[in-house]
Task: structure prediction
Amino acid sequence: MAGASSSPHASAHLTVSAGLFAPAWLPPGGRGNGLRAPSWAPIADIPAHQVDAVLAALGEVHIPAHAAPAPRPVRSLTSGEWQPGAVWRLRVGSTSYAKAEDLLMRLLRELTR
Result:
């Protein structure tokens, strides 16, 4: 995805759940792209190092999204033992699910090259 993380300020608009006034929909320790949705659906478990790029790319096309460390990944993404915080659960606005799915398929292929 062109511009997904090429700018040093690409993740500057991300919302971080770190205080008393964090949005109620943002899980503790999670990050969001600042867009809100009436309901959320889990869409993928992604490696922690890809969270900012994925949230920024979804935000660029106006798809509400947030991610937080997964309590336990649904399926191991890499070989080896699971480490807490290594995998984050990504959720998107329910009404944008199909659009997010299409974008993620392309984006994650590019990020894993």
